[in-house]
Amino acid sequence: MKIGVVTFPGSLDDVDASRAVRLAGGEPVALWHGDNDLAGVDAVVLPGGFSYGDYLRCGAIARFAPVMEALVDAARGGMPVLGICNGFQILCESHLLPGALVRNDHQRFVCRDQMLRIENADTAWTSAYETDQEIVVPLKNGEGGFVADEATLDSLEQEGRVVARYVGVNPNGSLRDIAGVTNERGNVVGLMPHPEHAVEALFGAGLDGRGFFASVVQAMADRS
Amino acid sequence: MARVVVDVMLKPEILDPQGKAVHGALDRLGFELVTDVRQGKRFELEVDGEMDDEKLADVNKLAETLLSNPVIETYAVTVAS
């Protein structure tokens, strides 16, 4: 089970994401933004960070990195792709996911342990959770407000494509408390909080983040 | 050499926290005549040779694909004289 983790200029959580993949039983494969192929991996994680210094818009320049061409094709073909934080922003800029991420409504960077409700446990990245299960994972962002027009938000709700929602506190002004969404097929998931920081005992909020990585490892095992 | 200006603005329905912060500061400074502030981006592009319709179409395309995100932003292209 090879899971690629892409490093862009300014990626921050690529090593943490690789560690999370390993702890969930997968084999992490380091991918480079300048490469033209995905090195035969079965799934890809776009990690958090500040690709290209967040210049222009978060994720806007990274979207045009050479590796993204292969990734967009693979994602459209059904390969599981998880974008965390900056990775979520890159997936929205790539139009693999709807909507966009904008500056937090309170204009401050926020860093906290965040409760989420997993509302769709049928995606490639959430099948290890129960529907409506509440988990706590760290969240840290400055531009984490999810926005889309009303029609898009309504269709996301109706199609069950809101993967995770903030519970208790809306940390960044995301519309309808949305913390993560998926594409129509359920293979591409974007999430603003950081499950890769909640995978090891004694570090942070607990082990609630492991499910994202365990889900895709299990999904791939079921397929083969 | 021609110069083209691309102005990018958040769509009116998208919250603009930066504009709000500027507006708040104006209030504190006593500029009460201002009722709203929206903050955008201005790109100045130097284009080789004279502008023509084909180049203008290219500029519009790059404004739509990279300089702005049509999900949240609008853009306007102006050829500077």
UniProtKB/TrEMBL annotation, chain A:
Pfam families registered for this protein in UniProt: GATase_5
GO cellular component, as recorded: cytoplasm
This protein's record includes keyword ATP-binding: yes
Entry annotation: catalytic residues: 85, 194, 196
Reactions performed catalytically: L-glutamine + H2O = L-glutamate + NH4(+); N(2)-formyl-N(1)-(5-phospho-beta-D-ribosyl)glycinamide + L-glutamine + ATP + H2O = 2-formamido-N(1)-(5-O-phospho-beta-D-ribosyl)acetamidine + L-glutamate + ADP + phosphate + H(+)
UniProt-annotated location(s): Cytoplasm
UniProt pathway annotation: Purine metabolism; IMP biosynthesis via de novo pathway; 5-amino-1-(5-phospho-D-ribosyl)imidazole from N(2)-formyl-N(1)-(5-phospho-D-ribosyl)glycinamide: step 1/2
UniProt cross-references to InterPro entries, sorted A to Z: Class_I_gatase-like, PRibForGlyAmidine_synth_PurQ
Keyword annotations of the record: ATP-binding, Cytoplasm, Glutamine amidotransferase, Hydrolase, Ligase, Nucleotide-binding, Purine biosynthesis
Single Gene Ontology BP annotation: 'de novo' IMP biosynthetic process
Function according to Swiss-Prot or TrEMBL: Part of the phosphoribosylformylglycinamidine synthase complex involved in the purines biosynthetic pathway. Catalyzes the ATP-dependent conversion of formylglycinamide ribonucleotide (FGAR) and glutamine to yield formylglycinamidine ribonucleotide (FGAM) and glutamate. The FGAM synthase complex is composed of three subunits. PurQ produces an ammonia molecule by converting glutamine to glutamate. PurL transfers the ammonia molecule to FGAR to form FGAM in an ATP-dependent manner.
Protein name (record): Phosphoribosylformylglycinamidine synthase subunit PurQ
Organism for this UniProt entry: Solicola gregarius
Classification of source organism: Bacteria, Bacillati, Actinomycetota, Actinomycetes, Propionibacteriales
From TrEMBL, chain B:
EC code: 6.3.5.3
Entry coiled-coil feature ranges: none
Catalytic activity: N(2)-formyl-N(1)-(5-phospho-beta-D-ribosyl)glycinamide + L-glutamine + ATP + H2O = 2-formamido-N(1)-(5-O-phospho-beta-D-ribosyl)acetamidine + L-glutamate + ADP + phosphate + H(+)
UniProt subcellular location: Cytoplasm
Swiss-Prot/TrEMBL keywords: ATP-binding, Cytoplasm, Ligase, Nucleotide-binding, Purine biosynthesis
GO MF, any single term: ATP binding
A biological process from GO: 'de novo' IMP biosynthetic process
Enzyme class: ligase
Recorded metabolic or biological pathway in which this protein acts: Purine metabolism; IMP biosynthesis via de novo pathway; 5-amino-1-(5-phospho-D-ribosyl)imidazole from N(2)-formyl-N(1)-(5-phospho-D-ribosyl)glycinamide: step 1/2
Pfam families xrefs: PurS
Recorded superkingdom: Bacteria
InterPro entries membership: PurS, PurS-like_sf
One GO CC term on file: cytoplasm
Keyword Acyltransferase applies: no
Subunit (UniProt): Part of the FGAM synthase complex composed of 1 PurL, 1 PurQ and 2 PurS subunits.
Family to which this protein belongs: Belongs to the PurS family.
Main function: Part of the phosphoribosylformylglycinamidine synthase complex involved in the purines biosynthetic pathway. Catalyzes the ATP-dependent conversion of formylglycinamide ribonucleotide (FGAR) and glutamine to yield formylglycinamidine ribonucleotide (FGAM) and glutamate. The FGAM synthase complex is composed of three subunits. PurQ produces an ammonia molecule by converting glutamine to glutamate. PurL transfers the ammonia molecule to FGAR to form FGAM in an ATP-dependent manner.
Name this protein carries in UniProt: Phosphoribosylformylglycinamidine synthase subunit PurS
